[in-house]
Amino acid sequence: MTQDGGAGLIVRRAGLVSVLASSFFLGPCNRPPSGAPPSPARGAAAEPPPAAAVLAAPVVAAVPPPSVPTPGEMRDSVAPLVDAVKDAVVTIQSTKILRRIMREDPWSAFLRNQGFGLDEPPRIAEERSQSLGSGFIFDRSGVVLTNNHVVAGADEVVVKLSDEKSVKAHVVGSDPATDVAVVQMDESLPRLAMVTLGDSDRVRVGDYVLAIGNPLGLGQTVTMGIVSAKNRVLDEKLGGLDPRYEDFIQTDAAINQGNSGGPLFNFRGEVVGINSAIINPGVAMNVGFAIPINLARRVAEQLLKGGKVSRGFLGVGGEDFTPEHARSLGMPFVAGALLNAVTQGGPAFTAGLRPNDVVVQVNDTPIGSYRRLSSVTAQLRPGEKARVVFLREGRRVETSLVVGAQGEAGEKIFLGVEVRALDSRELKSAELAPGQGLAVASVDPRGPASGVLQEGDLLVGVNRQPLTLALLKALEPRLRLGVRAYLVVQRGSSRFVLQL
Q1: Residue 286's Cα: distance from chain center in Å?
Q2: Concatenated DSSP letters for 366-387?
Q3: C-alpha distances in angstroms, 68 versus 74, 201, 264?
Q4: Which of 107, 119, 243, 280 has the fewest Cβ atoms within 10 angstroms?
Q5: Could you give the domains of the chain?
Q6: Best-predicted range by mean pLDDT (4-18, 95-109, 113-127)
Q7: 3-state SS string over 196-258?
Q8: Which residues are catalytic?
């Protein structure tokens, strides 16, 4: 049996970051605790609402867990806090069924070739690969929040409660771009314990946190630490697991494989993050990362409502603004996102942004890098108005725009594949110029590219020239006429060619 969706025990390609499995974090937000009515324990029956109805109201407005102690009451021990929240922590066991054609043994093949046996269809053997992670109940109808990598590709999912009861479950929806997944228990259980979701924007560096999860399959385990940093971007260090929208909370609470998917609690008993990854202990000790709960909550609400996630779109491409860029442009250096490309007709273009502008703020959020701009933009709701502050030739300019939806401007469906423009890191990896190359955003499992292309693949060239959106549009009608084309695909550090 492996931990963390079959991937957690394997140190990623860069050798720095390992994926975990769910874990629970309990840490302080430096806000006075408020009283709350006692939490019902598992007992008398009550018919829960369907998963699709479990949206913002019960999730966002849930009251704090019962009997959460004040920091003063925890001078000698955090046991009262652990007692108040531990029953909402669960273990998630996911099973993948691998079907393989069995090779015929030499003796049977000899007899068959000599005419002593009838031709039989190849025998199919099933292999079961099991993985362990963690999760937490955030609605009493049996809705569980966890990491995508804990349940990705699972044929069977079982949720194990704190009282050792096991319940079959299914994945409602998952979002690889943020590594968030929502699981629904198939059995209605009365009066389940549940967590309260807090406000990760109010978390401060230095706040205490507790981690509760099932590391290494040992069973429920509690560790404690602090918030070490915020807005961390791991970039390519995650290797095979590469969420596009990273905005991690860093903590030194001891967490291990098997902890992914669990929450990060403050001392009010509120979840402020979901554990997702750690730095390889061979490189550094106690450096863990959690997805901010505000991001996870927005993703979960959309998955529950429609099974997919809509993200904001500005229609820009760029890179981090560096002192070297500042010198070449003759302007003072300020951390921000330098725009290299602005899609004509897109939200940013319509609002007046142009190449060489440096975005430093979106609404009230400072922008210190291009990756931060991408993350903040993705969390905006399509159709809402956003205030953007940028620098142009050293002058501070403010504008407003209407956020677009990813897939409307610049993204395109091609052979059942949704594509998007490359970000600055991907351009560097593929050695392409801005405007060249496309990335696979999603693959229709029923489309012709299913099983061939996968999310994250870079489409770098076609017929010996760099691929652009214009070339892709011109290619489709030619393929329908039977014209052949050769598509160069980059996956990780390797490339291969597909004949279309």
Answers
A1: 21
A2: E--SHHHHHHHHHHSPTT-EEE
A3: 10, 21, 15
A4: 119
A5: 1-306 (2.40.10.120), 312-405 (2.30.42.10), 424-499 (2.30.42.10)
A6: 95-109
A7: EECCHHHCCCCCEEEEEECHHHCCCEEEEEEEEEEEECCHHHHCCCCCCCCCEEEECCCCCCC
A8: 149, 179, 260
